[in-house]
Write a structure and sequence with these properties.
Distance between the termini: 26 Å
Strand content: under 5%
Number of helices: 2
Shape: elongated
Helix content: over 70%
Length: 79
């Protein structure tokens, strides 16, 4: 399956795509915040270990969800 560039989507399709991407972004943000809070709690109880730096491995995932959302919003603004 070939992915269409954003310029080939209709305005309605872009709005639907933005809603899906926004939902995924907020879900990932909540999961990341929970991961950070659990890590802080674990660090306070046990000290610094491998799991203290564990959220840093998931930070690129948050960026991978944010940047396509930003491109979709920019495409909608340009129309």
């Amino acid at each position: 399956m070939k992915i269409k560039p954003l310029s080939e989507y209709s305005t309605e399709e872009l709005i639907a795509l933005e809603k899906k991407q926004k939902l995924m972004f907020y879900i990932n943000l909540v999961i990341f915040a929970l991961l950070i809070s659990v890590t802080i709690y674990g660090t306070m109880k046990k000290g610094i270990d491998f799991f203290t730096f564990f959220p840093l491995f998931f930070l690129p995932l948050q960026f991978a969800v944010y940047f396509p959302l930003k491109k979709t919003r920019d495409e909608l603004k340009s129309r």
